[in-house]
Structures are given as C-alpha cells and as structure tokens.
Amino acid sequence: MTKKTLLLVIVGLALGAALAFGIRAWCPPAAAQQAEGIAAQRSVSPAAQREVPGSREEVLLSYAPLVKDVAPAVVNVYSARRAQQRASTFFDQFFGRMNRPPRVEQSLGSGVIVGADGLIVTNNHVVEGAEQILVSLSDRREFSAEIVFTDPQMDLALLRVDTGGEALPTVDLGDSDSVEVGDIVVAIGNPFGVGQTVTNGIVSAVARAGVGISDYQFFLQTDAAINPGNSGGALIGLDGTLVGVNTAIYSRSGGSNGIGFAIPVNSVRQFLAGAASGRVMRPWFGAEAQTVTREIASSMGLDRPSGALIRSVSESGPAADAGLRSGDIVTAVNGEAVGDPAMLRYLTGSQPLGSELTLTYLRGGERRQTTIELIEPPETPKRNETLLSGEHILTGVQVANLSPRLASELGSGVPESGVIVTGITRGAPAARVNFVRTGDIIDSVNGETVETVRELETVMGSASAEAEIVFTRGGQQAACYFRAPNFFRCRS
C-alpha cells in the first residue's frame, strides 16, 4: 500500500468518526429516548402489555367478561336414535327380504340453560326421535336428559337434567323486539362437536321469513359464524342477555357462509309459557295478508310497494272487531313499520295472548289507526279427525275440519275453514296413484262444495263409480277425475 493510499484511508476514518459524533450530538435526547422505548416495547411479551377488561362496560376492548358470564349456561347436546336400514332391492331378488339390524344415528347440537333446576332449551331437530340424550356442561360434567316439551313448528324443545338439587348457571332472556340491524352479537355453541366455541358478528336482518325452515317461524339473521353443531346454541347481545337460539345456516358447502338464522328470544319466551301450560297457543290475528306489488301500489296511488294488503278477514275475529276490511293496507304495528306480510305476522305472532296493538293502515288513501286485541284462536268447528272408509278413491285418507286453531297449529298460509288432509294410510287407493297429500284442502266433489268432514263423507258415499275432486295445494287449485275401475286424469 502506498503512502498516498494510506493517507486517504486515515482521512476517511477520521471523517466518518466525526460525522457519527456530530449526528449523535445533533439528535434530540427525547427522540433518542423514544426510539429506545419502542425497541423496549417490542421486546416485551404482548400478553404482559395487554390488560383484560374487568367489566361489561369495557367490552368494546374484549368480549371476555361477557363470555365468562354467559358461557357456563351454554351446553353441548348429544342424542342417539335407531333407524331401520333399508334392504337392498337388488339382493332381495335372490335372497328375499333380509332383516337388518337397526342403524344408530347420532346427532350433536347445543342448548341454553334457562332454569337453574335443569331446564334447557334446544332445537327440536337436535333431539327429535332420540332414544338417548346426553348433556355436557361447560365444566365437562355430563348428565342424561329427558324431553319435557316440544314444538316442531317452532323447532324448539325443552329438556330437563337431574343435578341432584344443584343450581345450574342460567342466561337471562332479553327482548328480541329491541334488536336492530347492525347490533353486535356473540354466538356460543358446539360446532362440528369440537367443543364450546365463541364467534361474533352483527345482526344482518330481523323478521326474516321464507328461508325454507318453517312456514310459521321468523328469524334473526346474523353473520356470526354458525356451523353444524351450533343448533340450539345461544345468540347473545352485548348486554349479556339471550336474544336468539341459533337454529340454521344457509350454505352450499355445509359450513358457515356468513348467513345464519336464530329463533328470536321472544318466540322462545312464548314457547316456555306454552311448556308451562302444556301447549303452545299462538295469538290469533284473524286476517290473511298479501304482498303489495308495484302494480297494486300504483293502482292505489302509493309512492312505494310497501305494507301488508289485507286479503281476507275472518268473521268475529280480532281483525274484524278492530274494523279492518279486505283491501286495507297495514303499514305499522305499534309504530314499527310493516314492509310486507312476513313482518306483520312477526309483529303480531310474537306477542303474548291478550296484547293490545295499535295498527296503522291505509284505506282509500286515508291513513287511519285502530287497536286490536290478540286472543286465543277458537276451535270452531271441532276438527273431527276422521279416517274415510268405503269404496271410493279417498278410502284410507284421514281428514279434519279446519278452524282458526288448527290453521294456527299448521302454520301460515293455511285457510281457517274447509276440510284438510291430515294423513294417508299406506296402500290406500289415493296413495297408489299419488293423488292427495297431507296438507291438501278438499274444495269440492262432483261440483258440490265441501266445507266439513261430514259433508265430504256424504258426497263420497255416492261417488264410488266416478268422482271429480277439486283440491288446493300450496295455494294452487287442481282437479282430478276418477272412473272405476282404473281411469285417472288430473288438470290444474
């Protein structure tokens, strides 16, 4: 190395040291301390820095306090039932019918403790037909459970476990009528049987109907992750109260797609009241409504297709007593807007018997108000359930008289008068030709209107050789013509 090169290296080192000293001397002490603090923070465990909120008021930072309070009241439900296996028709050709041992089907779900004495609410489909039910608490203790009461139409079941007098933790029932779209909710359940799991989301919709679960029931929709096994679990509001019972999801894959449905807690409260009395009695509105279409709205001078158009009113029913008529459009119940018939059914059907509601409605463009009292639907006429006999196409078909009470039990869309098919005996003539089905309404036989079971029996007694039967199925009317011994033709 030459003297010139060595000199350049020494000069460079000296300039670098001077520059470093100058930068350190220029940098403010506060900034240096801040940088050292950030580095120190990064070296500390995040768990040591995080402080868990100690109250529900601080739940904006964590759901932990809420979950600690509520989770012990949510249980896992396991059920088992025996199902007869179908014999193979292929092997039957060679070996005849073989008696196969029954197959054990298992189901899993969740439940919510609503009574400290061991009462648990879950979905009916979780325990329907079960021969053995096992309930697992959050502390892993297990108890056998028995079914106390069920309502398949609401898809709810009430179970009881015997804890030997020990009081179990419960969850308080909230008010689903006060739930609004956008409210934060927490779902607790047992998805896929992995154990108690907590997810959160928001209420996506209220009074959701027509989702293929129940013709009667209305649901809260949420995007909180709900999966198989969550059925019967709790949907909790941020105040720690139960706002719904998770019951179903909309999914093409079998997992959560952010569209879950929960039975509103006010319906659960109605179910529990029915369990206490031995039967669920839904309030009777006494009128059928239909959607206000754009064409109807335009013809009536409305600025939007909204509300529930009264299509028919039952004589001496609550709606008739309140002065409602066919053609009226109900726009609000107790000040809450009614956008469609489903919302009207929800706001009236979720109220206890004896409730008085204020209805706002339009008649001839004029806005009016009236008060309606929800009462128990009468069973007039008596249902007189009868298995038809004789030599005619309806032999072996079971029918009953419709009434407001029976229509309420069967669900929305069922008329409150007429004759309804309630069952068909296997091997009956109508079953062999796939004629009537359970739920069909028999309207007339050979041109004679049928309004009661007795009238149907009389007219069928003289229609053994041939009969034209007009019936209604799913709101659509059809007719079938029969002529002995085997001529059969239907038209819609």
TrEMBL record:
InterPro entries: PDZ, PDZ_sf, Pept_S1C_Do, Peptidase_S1_PA, Peptidase_S1C. The keyword Cell membrane does not apply. SUPFAM superfamilies: PDZ domain-like, Trypsin-like serine proteases. Pfam families: PDZ_2, Trypsin_2. One of its GO terms (molecular function) is serine-type endopeptidase activity. Residues 289-365, 399-475 form the PDZ domain. Belongs to the peptidase S1C family. This is Serine protease MucD/AlgY. It comes from Pacificimonas flava.
